[in-house]
């Protein structure tokens, strides 16, 4: 019973840590995401990074850089929570003694990224629409002006393509996230192992296995 409670506490802490980190990360990175996605649009009207920043600020105001912030958080908080919890669950199965084991870290990281990406794809679709404000898409459903708010984004995506529209690009998102999270976790676990081993050596211990 105590072991089960300890595991539940560990998973809760992992989910909470990921969520809090996301709030701070997205506050800083949301404007960069807006600029990146606008420059990636087909026939993007922007000549470069600075031109995009200046044009968006002049025509839409600073609020445009945070129009998708609530959607970004709504997506990334569950993404990180599912990500961390899935990694911990996979490690419980593949590496219960929590030794440094590269194969288990890669597999656990890839699985965590794939599952997190799949379940949060609908929110990513809405976030992209809010960031890009694609005129062709919005005019096709008779939306004038700038689209704002997660609820409006959900309604607009549904009008554009029905339920299946929320999973546009899900395969590409999974393929992108799997190697990304596998690499991140394997590098993290390697340096944790390496630094712990160095510390143990300085203290005269045997070091981790």
UniProtKB/TrEMBL annotation:
<comment type="function">
    <text>Mitochondrial iron transporter that specifically mediates iron uptake in developing erythroid cells, thereby playing an essential role in heme biosynthesis.</text>
</comment>
<keyword id="KW-1133">Transmembrane helix</keyword>
<dbReference type="GO" id="GO:0015093">
    <property type="term" value="F:ferrous iron transmembrane transporter activity"/>
</dbReference>
<comment type="similarity">
    <text>Belongs to the mitochondrial carrier (TC 2.A.29) family.</text>
</comment>
<keyword id="KW-0812">Transmembrane</keyword>
<keyword id="KW-0472">Membrane</keyword>
<keyword id="KW-0410">Iron transport</keyword>
<keyword id="KW-0408">Iron</keyword>
<dbReference type="InterPro" id="IPR023395">
    <property type="entry name" value="MCP_dom_sf"/>
</dbReference>
<keyword id="KW-0813">Transport</keyword>
<keyword id="KW-0406">Ion transport</keyword>
<keyword id="KW-0496">Mitochondrion</keyword>
<dbReference type="GO" id="GO:0048250">
    <property type="term" value="P:iron import into the mitochondrion"/>
</dbReference>
<feature type="repeat" description="Solcar">
    <location>
        <begin position="9"/>
        <end position="93"/>
    </location>
</feature>
<dbReference type="InterPro" id="IPR018108">
    <property type="entry name" value="MCP_transmembrane"/>
</dbReference>
<protein>
    <recommendedName>
        <fullName>Mitoferrin-1</fullName>
    </recommendedName>
</protein>
<dbReference type="GO" id="GO:0031966">
    <property type="term" value="C:mitochondrial membrane"/>
</dbReference>
<dbReference type="Pfam" id="PF00153">
    <property type="entry name" value="Mito_carr"/>
</dbReference>
<feature type="repeat" description="Solcar">
    <location>
        <begin position="100"/>
        <end position="194"/>
    </location>
</feature>
């Amino acid at each position: 019973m105590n072991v089960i409670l300890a595991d539940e506490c560990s998973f809760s802490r992992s989910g909470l840590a990921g969520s809090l980190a996301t709030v701070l990360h997205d506050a800083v990175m949301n404007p960069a995401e807006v600029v990146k996605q606008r420059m990636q649009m087909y026939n993007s009207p922007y000549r470069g990074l600075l031109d995009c920043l200046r044009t968006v600020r002049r025509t839409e105001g600073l609020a445009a850089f945070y129009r998708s912030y609530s959607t970004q958080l709504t997506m990334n908080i569950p993404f990180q929570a599912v990500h961390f919890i899935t990694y911990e669950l996979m490690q419980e199965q593949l590496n219960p003694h929590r030794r440094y084991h590269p194969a288990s870290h890669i597999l656990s990281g890839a699985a965590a990224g794939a599952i997190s990406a799949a379940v949060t794809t609908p929110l990513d679709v809405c976030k992209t629409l809010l960031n890009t404000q694609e005129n062709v898409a919005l005019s096709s459903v008779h939306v004038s002006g700038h689209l704002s708010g997660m609820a409006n984004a959900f309604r607009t995506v549904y009008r554009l393509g029905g339920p299946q529209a929320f999973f546009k690009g899900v395969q590409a998102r999974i393929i992108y996230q799997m190697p990304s999270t596998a690499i991140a976790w394997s590098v993290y676990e390697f340096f944790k192992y390496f630094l712990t081993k160095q510390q143990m050596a300085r203290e005269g211990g045997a070091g981790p296995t």
